[in-house]
From TrEMBL:
InterPro entries: Aminopeptidase_N-like_N, Aminopeptidase_N-like_N_sf, ERAP1-like_C_dom, M1_APN-typ, Peptidase_M1, Peptidase_M1_aminopeptidases, Peptidase_M1_dom, Peptidase_M4/M1_CTD_sf. This is Aminopeptidase. The lineage of its organism: Eukaryota, Fungi, Dikarya, Ascomycota, Pezizomycotina. Binds 1 zinc ion per subunit. The keyword RNA-binding does not apply. It comes from the Eukaryota. PANTHER family: AMINOPEPTIDASE, PROTEASE M1 ZINC METALLOPROTEASE. Residues 12-206 form the Aminopeptidase N-like N-terminal domain. Coiled coil: none annotated. Its cofactor is Zn(2+). One of its GO terms (biological process) is proteolysis. Keywords: Aminopeptidase, Hydrolase, Metal-binding, Metalloprotease, Protease, Zinc.
Length: 886
């Protein structure tokens, strides 16, 4: 197709027989062979397939009794392809056999077949590779386009096949793959060959295997599948497996839940979970062998922060949703990645809401998911949900908040409109119709239309195919309102060409006179008048189920701030977030936002408070260079939380509601970073006691962030030195992330320049492991520094001056480089830095992060415009309210 760069259709794979052997833990290499049976569409002397960082040694092509050997291999590194040329032309055949012998690299780039380093929690098997500081295990990461790093293959999502896999490993280690073990044979020299049962037909990116010193815990599903309860296992390196118990409590229940909701039984004979020590993303949905970052799957009841309880449960649900949506039915091409990720995000929250209704996860999604998607989609450089993807390097950048969170948002909007039961009935039709195949977005809409009797494509076409989202501007007349939709841009400079889309907008109106509840009206044109509206109270997008902002008149927004008892938790979150972003774009004002937020004084729901404090935080971030304004906003923040702060106290209560625990942490952290003297004194006393006697005075897991931030604030040099040691020695799975995030807030320029930046960007080796953050975790420290006004310019200067070194550190993984650009640069508020960024990248290749770079630049433009426009007005309001003296 013209819009994508894909392989020739000469050969269509049907089955792979892949064998790996000669694992060399000194040179980090291996040998392999793959026998690919397929349909040779036409007579040929050439086969083109995907290869990256492999050495092809010899190949044969056999068909119709004729065999031809290799003449040459021609590799194109840029296109990640190899052309195999054979001696003789081979005739077309439905059962051609391509055999390739090759060698590969056990890289340290978290892509392909790679090695992960770790410090063992218990004595390891004798054969486990190790050096002076680390042990190693092996695993794979193939999505989106990295199966080609591990073995020669036709590495495109719609070139599905079955796979048989075997691997030779040390006799005292464990091998895992998508399917159960078929046979284990002793092959001598303290080695064994492990072969696995053949997979269902699936895409190359879902194949997976791992080798290591693994142990497991096991549970079984409640339902039977084919007459048996399915085994579900959590695997870790030795000594960590009991921390998989929380995940194991959820996984079997989630498998049963989805099997019932989708009306299709889980399709494989087992479900394995593997905690990988080094990992780019949160997790990867390999069919039957899901791999995870440690903090996304392990949870210690004594040592883990409560928020990871929520995270682990959700990520398990998300990845298991993929076993149907993505694995059983796969998008036809990467431009429809959202079909995988948007639905898995929605289904993940649906399952957790079912298992933990007390968590109120849809309020969490409105606070976290909606807002993150809104922010990315409100810049001109955003992209449609369904976005053109030409080649492999384009793919990684669309694993973003548009595919995941906007995708989920519009699915939730549609499910709410159709009714969740009807929606899931349509999903079942879709999955059954396309099982073990590939599908496109319109085929999902067709199934949902069939289930609902509604023309879903007409409703959703613009939401999927067009960039951005609408803001509804409301004007009032006695007894009626006029609602007008237009595209929302955070830069506030919407041009006529930006505003061509007309979205279907479900209004979900509360407050129509003579009616009760929510009216299911919809806006299908640019503008509409609605009569019989209650002049005292009305609300659009009640329950926050639809993906748009509402710009109320200032007086209405202020009045809603006095009618909080009429609003749901989700309503409060969405109104607060909208007021903040509408002020940011210049369609509203910062004083109007702060006036509304004042009405939330004493609010005790953590998600509402999160949204309010995040909104104030954005104002501080943009205008806080003015010390007077910063001080005023700190005082404003402290008075907002004072009442709630007194209620929650410092001591977590056993068995308390999870949202209460999260509320305490947010309130205490807010108090500390805004200069609350009593809170800082208490936090520092806990810190000093811990330093003096770590075993006797441990810091409660949920207070570490609070205590560390107080220490960083009081004495950056000493605290960073201590937290670096804590980062290296902590036994808590989440401890490293928490230490890195705290250190990044150090305000001492010397500490930032001389300690934190080398710590983040140096490589190990030659730097000692204690002085080098692994590539997979750099973003935790960089993100905190980017949010720190003292560190932000130094971070950019270091990246600019050491760009090639940073590229070398992330190695062959463009995802890490893209993420570093994404988290490090968007918080500037001046056009001079924007110009510097543009100049720096003007003469460099940005392939692999070009989309992200454009969104970063748009974010800076919006922040700079906001600062110029509202600085004077904000200061005058703060002074007028008595928060500072002008």
């Amino acid at each position: 197709m013209a819009d994508r760069d894909i392989l020739p259709d000469t050969f269509k794979p049907v089955h792979y027989d892949l064998a790996i052997k000669d694992l060399d833990f000194a040179k980090w290499t291996y040998n392999g062979s793959v026998i690919i049976t397929g349909d040779l569409k036409a007579a040929t002397k050439e086969i083109v397939l995907n290869v990256l960082e492999l050495t092809l040694k010899e190949a044969t092509l056999t068909a119709e009794g004729k065999e031809s050997k290799t003449v040459q291999f021609t590799e194109d590194t840029k296109s990640q392809r190899a052309t195999i040329t054979f001696q003789d032309e081979i005739p077309a055949s439905a059962k051609a056999v391509l055999t390739i012998h090759f060698s590969g690299i056990l890289n340290h780039d978290m892509a392909g077949f790679y090695r992960s380093q770790y410090k063992p929690a218990a004595p390891a098997a004798a054969s486990v590779p190790r050096d002076d500081e680390f042990h190693y295990h092996l695993s794979t990461q193939f999505e989106a386009c990295d199966a080609r790093r591990a073995f020669p293959c036709f590495d495109e999502p719609n070139l599905k096949a079955t796979f048989s896999f075997a691997i030779e490993i040390p006799a005292d280690q464990v091998a895992l793959s998508n399917m159960p073990v078929k046979e284990t044979r002793d092959v001598g020299n303290d080695k064994k060959s492990v072969s696995f049962e053949t997979t269902p037909i699936m895409s190359t990116y879902l194949l997976a295997w791992a080798v290591g010193d693994f142990e497991y815990i096991e549970a079984f599903t409640g339902r039977e599948y084919g007459g048996k309860k399915l085994p579900v296992r959590v695997y870790t390196t030795r000594g960590l497996v009991q921390q998989g118990q929380w995940a194991l409590e959820h996984a079997p229940k989630i498998i049963d839940y989805f099997s019932e909701q989708f009306d299709i039984d889980y399709p494989l004979p087992k479900s394995d979970i593997l905690a990988a020590h080094e990992f780019t993303h949160g997790a990867m949905e390999n069919w039957g062998l899901v791999t995870y970052r440690l903090t996304a799957i392990l949870f210690d009841e004594k040592l883990s922060d409560t928020r990871y309880r929520n995270r682990v449960a959700y990520v398990v649900a998300h990845e298991l949703a993929h076993q149907w949506f993505g694995n059983l039915v796969t998008m036809d091409w990467w431009n429809e990645l959202w079909l995988n990720e948007g639905f898995a995000t929605y289904a993940g929250w649906l399952a957790i809401d079912y298992l933990h209704p007390d968590w109120e996860v849809w309020a969490q999604f409105v606070n976290e998911g909606f807002e993150a998607a809104f922010k990315l989609d409100s810049v001109r450089a955003s992209h449609p949900i369904q976005v053109a993807v030409r080649d492999a390097l384009d793919v990684n950048q669309i694993f973003d908040k548009i595919s995941y969170l906007k995708g989920c948002s519009i699915i939730r909007m549609l499910a709410s409109h159709l009714g969740v039961k009807t929606f899931l009935k349509g999903i079942a039709i879709y999955l059954k119709r396309h099982a073990y195949g590939n599908a496109k977005t319109y085929e999902l809409w067709n199934a949902l239309s069939e289930a609902s009797g509604t023309d879903v494509n007409a409703l959703m076409d613009a939401w999927v195919g067009k960039i951005g989202f609408p803001v509804l501007t409301v004007t009032e007349k006695p007894g009626q309102i006029t609602v007008k939709q237009s595209r929302f841009l955070s830069t506030g400079d919407v041009k006529p060409e930006d505003d061509q889309t007309v979205w279907w907008v479900p209004l979900a109106l509360r407050g129509k006179t003579g009616t009760q509840g929510v009216q299911s009206l919809a806006l299908t044109g640019k503008e509409e008048n609605i009569s019989d509206v209650d002049e005292d109270f009305y609300l659009l997008n009640a329950g926050a189920t639809a993906f748009y902002r509402v710009n109320y008149p200032p007086e209405r927004l202020a009045k809603l701030g006095t009618q909080l008892d009429k609003l749901t938790v989700e309503d409060k979150i969405l109104i607060t977030g909208s007021a903040a972003e509408i002020a940011f774009a210049g369609n509203g004002s910062t004083p109007a936002l702060l006036s509304f937020v004042q009405g939330l004084k004493g609010e005790t729901h953590v998600r509402v408070l999160d949204q309010a404090l995040d909104s104030i935080g954005q104002v501080k971030s943009v205008f806080g260079d003015d010390k007077q304004v910063l001080g005023a906003l700190q005082k404003f923040t402290l008075q907002l939380i004072e009442k709630s702060l007194q209620q929650v106290g410092w001591e977590p209560v056993a068995g308390e509601d999870i949202n209460r625990t999260l509320l305490r942490k947010r309130l205490l952290l807010t108090a500390v970073v805004n200069g609350h003297e009593e809170a800082n004194a208490r936090a520092l006393s806990i810190y000093e006691a811990y330093k003096a006697d770590p075993a006797g005075s441990p810091i409660h897991a949920d207070l570490r962030t609070v205590v560390y931030r107080a220490a960083i604030r009081a004495n950056p040099a000493e605290a960073v030195s201590f937290l670096k040691k804590e980062w290296f020695t902590t036994k808590s799975i989440d401890g490293k992330d928490i230490c890195l995030s705290a250190m990044g807030h150090a305000s001492d320029v010397n500490v930032i320049r001389d300690v934190l930046l080398p710590f983040c960007f140096s490589t190990s080796p030659p730097a000692p492991a204690t002085d080098s953050v692994p590539a997979a975790d750099m973003h935790y420290l960089a993100s905190a520094m980017a949010n720190n006004r003292e560190a932000r310019p130094l971070l950019w200067k270091h990246m600019r001056d050491h760009w090639e070194d940073m590229e070398a550190k992330v190695g062959g993984n463009p995802i890490v480089l893209d993420r570093m650009v994404q988290v490090s640069l968007p918080k500037f508020t001046d056009y001079e830095t924007l110009q510097d960024i543009e100049s720096f990248f003007a003469n460099r290749s940005t392939k692999g992060f070009d989309r992200t770079l454009e969104t970063v630049k748009d974010s800076i433009r919006g922040r700079a415009a906001y600062r110029q426009r509202d600085a004077k007005q904000l200061k005058e309001w703060l002074c007028g309210q008595g928060w500072c003296k002008c």
